[in-house]
Design a protein that fits this description.
With 249 residues, this protein is of the alpha/beta class. Helix content is 35%, strand content 20%. Helix 2 links the parallel strand 1 (20-26) and strand 2. The radius of gyration is 20 Å and the shape is globular.
Amino acid sequence: MLNKSLIGLVLLGLSANAGTIKIAVAANVSYAINDLKKEFNKLHPNTKVRVTLGSSGKLTAQISHGAPYDLFMSANMKYPNTLYKNNIAITKPIIYAKGSLAYLSNKPKDFSKGINLLEDKSIRKIAIANPKTAPYGIASVEALKNAKIYKNIKAKLIYGESIAQTVSYTVTATDIGLIAKSSLFSPKMSHFKENINWKEVDSSLYTPIDQGLVILKQGKENKEVKAFYDFVLSPKAKEIFKTYGYQLP
């Protein structure tokens, strides 16, 4: 049997090998990230995963100015591609999931009208993510313009700085919102019913939201960072993303 001193040395060694990885994560993934961490830690119990949530644009600005993140899960491919071109990301961006837009309202709506529902006089305020910093905001504006209603409803728009803030505005301050479909799969959102409170936006109205993953310079040659990167691309992670309403690449 191992004596107490030897056991102590073994535990000390395990503790010394345990590391912390820091991940910048687009706000739309906030609903899936806890499940991803939970499953990852079953495989790597000694690795602590610290997550910072925000809009992809703001996280990219932080990373560009030296914020100490090891890995970036963006809501689109534009921002990680920029980091890769600037030699801040060390892996070429790869799609880990495809996001979708959905309408959400506290009160029942006639979603058979499609996007033209937003022109109704009863809808005075519409929440969308800020297109300057959030890819889901870019997709929302694109959908409105392609439907040729953007000019008609522009004055109604209320902007959230991230998709998480947009969801908050949608359920507290506006009549309806354009949000990430993934947010509807949070347990806190389970009381909202499809075709009554929410419906997916016609995907032909906007460019598919390809969400990109990169390892950043700080995470270079870090085995735990690479392990998390590989896990996000694994079949198990794909199951989790699918559960939260994402399409798979």
